[in-house]
Amino acid sequence: MASAWFVEGAFGLENLVWRPRVLAPVAPGFVRVAVRAVSLNYRDLLMVLGQYDARQPLPLIPGSDASGEVEAVGEGVTRWRVGDAVIPSFATAWPSGRPERWMQRSTLGGPLDGTFATHVDVPEGALVRKPACLSFEEAATLPCAGVTAWRALVVEGGVRAGETVVTQGTGGVSMFALQIGKMHGAHVGLTTSSDAKEARVRGLGADAVWRRDQGVAWGKEALVWTGGRGVDHVLDLGGASTLRESLQAVRPAGRVSLIGILGGVEASVPLTRIFMNGVTVQGILVGSTADLAGLVDAYAAHPDVRPVVDRVADIAALPDVLGVMARGDHFGKIVLKVSG
Asked: Is 22 exposed, middle or buried (0-12, 13-18, 19+ CB in 10 A)?
């Protein structure tokens, strides 16, 4: 029986309800995916709480990431067959290139119903084949956090061997940035907040680690790390609380990718650090299906590198693991299995 988590009546974790749903016939040009695994993003938590878009109509099936198998195809579908292992793209109407506004409204988990369900229907062009080297659980981590890091560093940033990358924290985007940077021969530094997390990121290849829990001014430390030159690529996940440090760390003509808002959405920053140094400050809103395909190809070319999964739970545990995400206790991605 098809089922899904719904946010019903009002926003809030207490209003998440797992219930059966009736599936309509698959629409022409669409593919029905039997979901095998989903992963959590901070966006999903904000959407459930009503802090991402308070005007989002309810009920809503949240969830942005998934992997699964093709269960049925609509009329006219030629790219996919029943049984194919696939990954749906987050922005289902953004095939490649630069997005248009209407493409940005095609995202799973708001405004469209999302992936925290046994089934999800998406256009046939919004799917990428799952690489054999990744499990369903690992593949489900790619569409949002992985593509965000990929677009920041590769698509927009053109990261090259020998360049430097700095990212913040040990959540999903940062772990992908670490792996993608190392795949391209870059030197990667990051911030973290405990001995245990520092040991783990060094084990994953981090070249430098700065401790937020020890009050380290990591922007200045990054300058020291680069011999005073500054960092080529900074991924800013904190927003208002970290942008000053990011601008301190970046080199002249370097790039700061604004990705997260964990530390707030309104910042006061010295604009002179941007225009007098020719710094590119870019907003990153995940990416296209082509970006997802590029990331998948990168992992297929590096089968020894696997996405960092913090824990795997059952889809029934969604409210509890959203609480874990809210506390920031995770390292990498949190994944939920959906029974086949």
From this structure: exposed
Dist CA 331 CA 270 (whole Å): 32
Both tokens assigned to 220: 């200045």
Per-residue model confidence (pLDDT) at position 42: 92
DSSP secondary structure string, 257-313? EE---TT-S-----THHHHTTT-EEEE-----HHHHHHHHHHHHH-TT----EEEEE
| From 162-176, 218-232, 254-268, 301-315, the region with the lowest mean pLDDT | 254-268
Backbone angles phi, psi at 306, to 5 degrees: -125, 140
CA distance 276 to 253: 10
- Report pLDDT for 213: 79
119-136 residue pLDDT tens:
999 999 999 999 999 999
Q: Measuring CA to CA, which residue among 156, 153, 185 is closest to residue 166?
A: 153
Do residues 332 and 204 make contact, with C-beta atoms less than 8 angstroms apart? Answer: no
Summarised one tens digit per residue, pLDDT across range 248-259 is 999 999 999 999
Q: Determine the distance from the C-alpha atom of residue 14 to the mean position of all C-alpha atoms in its chain, rounded to a whole number.
A: 25
Give burial (CB, 10 Å; 0-12/13-18/19+) of 280. Answer: middle
Q: Are strands 187-192 and 231-236 parallel, antiparallel or unpaired?
A: unpaired
Domains for the chain: give ranges and CATH numbers: 3-144+287-337 (3.90.180.10), 157-283 (3.40.50.720)
Rounded-to-integer distance, Cα 259 and Cα 171, Å: 12
| Tens of pLDDT, residues 141-195 | 999 999 999 999 999 999 999 999 999 999 999 999 999 999 999 999 999 989 9
Q: In sequence order, which residues have a C-beta less than 8 Å from that of residue 128 and are 6 or more positions away?
A: 86, 87, 89, 289, 292, 293, 296
Q: Do the beta carbons of residue 93 and residue 27 sit within 8 Å?
A: no
Among 267, 314, 297, CA closest to 18: 314
pLDDT of 29 over the 70 cut? yes
